Amino acid sequence: MELVKAMENPLSHPKIFNLFLSVVGGGSRSFTTLVREYIRPDNYMSILDLCCGTSNILPYLEYSEYIGIDLNVKNTEHCRKKYADKRNVHFINGDINPFLRSNEKQFDIILFLSGMHHFCDADLISCLRNVQRVLKPEGRLITIDGCLESDLPLIAKLMLKNDRGKYVRIKDAWIEIVSSVMPDIKFSIRRDLNKIPYNHIIFYT
Ligand SMILES: C[S@@+](CC[C@H](N)C(=O)[O-])C[C@H]1O[C@@H](n2cnc3c(N)ncnc32)[C@H](O)[C@@H]1O
Questions:
Q1: What's the gap in Å between 55 CA and the centre of ligand 1?
Q2: Does an H or E element contain 108, and which?
Q3: Which of 26, 71, 83, 190 makes a 20 to 30 Å CA pair with 53?
């Protein structure tokens, strides 16, 4: 039965997802780039990681407290075991939207890594509005997602169009939707983060 489920949606299994990432993702070089150039964490900062998956970014972060939330219970169980020895680290199994709506705590940094392309426009807008509420006044949001552009190599287009997330957007659509909620947000387009040709859009404040 487990094998049948794995065949239906192999990437929902933490180990298969991590194997996939080790083949096509950028590994430690891309995590280091993301952390050094965009997240810029410090050991006094509280971090909320939305759609944390298997939380592969965690070993690269400094923080005073880290909370990861993911809908997939296999991911949160995997993370709780993998990071059992880490202090001030918590994993919540659940949907980020109700969590963001009801959460009273504010964070220094909110990460939303490879998560926004799982949300339709209306849900993403509502989610980003709630992110603003949950960020401290000087807090920062950092996101990264796949981004379609017309001049991409075929392999990048195929990867992006076949993503599990149904809402991989073209660059202008990403900018329009994210800046409709956060007009001052900056963005960066990166083609150098994965081992195979790919295109990322990073939003950061
Ligand atoms: C592509 S993975 C990214 C995982 C991780 N952030 C990373 O960068 O490796 C997307 C994750 O979003 C989670 N997810 C999708 N919709 C969600 C929702 N509404 N609430 C919480 N997690 C969600 C999925 O379970 C999956 O683990």
A1: 10
A2: strand 107-113
A3: 190
Amino acid at 184: D
The amino acid at residue 58 is L
Residue-wise pLDDT for 47-65, tens only, equals 999 999 999 999 999 999 9
CA of 183 to the centre of ligand 1 (A): 25
Q: Looking at residue 28, what is its pLDDT?
A: 84
Do 75 and 92 touch, CB atoms closer than 8 A?
no
User: Distance between CA atoms of 85 and 79, rounded to whole angstroms?
Assistant: 11
Question: Is 41:63 a contact under the CB 8 Å cutoff?
Answer: yes
Round to whole Å and give the CA distance between 103 and 10: 32
Looking at residue 24, its pLDDT comes to 67
Quick check: CB of 51 below 6 Å from ligand 1? yes
Structural domains of the chain in order of their starting residue, each with its CATH number: 26-54+61-204 (3.40.50.150)
Distances in whole angstroms, Cα of residue 127 to Cα of each of 15, 54, 75, 119, 161: 28, 21, 21, 9, 23
Closest listed residue to residue 110, CA positions, set 68, 155, 81 = 68
Query: Which residue is closest in CA terms to ligand 1's atom 14?
Result: 51
The tokens 């430690």 sit on which residue?
28
Of 67, 47, 52, 37, which is closest to residue 202 (Cα–Cα)? 37
Q: From CA 117, how far away is CA 179, in angstroms rounded?
A: 15
